[in-house]
Here is the input.
Amino acid sequence: MANKATFRIEDFDAETSTMSINIGPLTAANFTAKRDAIDDLKVALQDMIAGEIRATSISENFAESAAAVTDENAQRESKWLGVLRDVTQFFDVGNTINNPGFGRLFNVEIPTALLSLLGGNSGVLDLAVPAVAAFVTALEAVANSPTGGNEVEVVEIRHVGRNI
Amino acid sequence: MEEKFALLVDALPETGDVSYEEWYNTLQATQGGRQALKVVHQARRDGVLEMGQRKSGFLIARPGQLRTKESEVENG
Here is the structure.
């Protein structure tokens, strides 16, 4: 899949829509040049439209497994619901600026839940089970809260059904 | 160190790291260990122990004892 640059544009009555383009390979060597070119495009785009550009994003797509899905229980309607909590109480070293999002909970959904990880007659995962512990550690290392990009911790992961 | 983390850390080697699965199975074998495992992520957040994904698998160790990703590359 191609890498993309996307501009999110808001109209007169606060509705949003996007413009996306393919931008070719991204490397450490060309990232700054690509970003600057996209920034130039954004400036030119603003003069072409009546709305306002609210956000610009660059996404890189990595090709992953090409294997066929063999487990018939792999259904997108069956999900893990991860509950995460913002654990950054203060924004500054001196603890004078409160993080308004501290303690706030938010969710992440993971499709095609592998239900064999459940145990103990519970729909909630034991976070110490090896596969789950590896996931929680990796998630907490990289995931941020939606309020200010703060560190998060996983509170629980449970199985849920979802209508798509 | 908090008492609730003691069992988790006691089961780790003094130096170097150990496979998480092996360590988990050891603790699972005892009632106290099973209870202690409930706070394993809190122990990691508090810096009482370290976990990490390496080429050789998911590892756990006392602070500063986890092998680095660089050393894994050097050792092939």
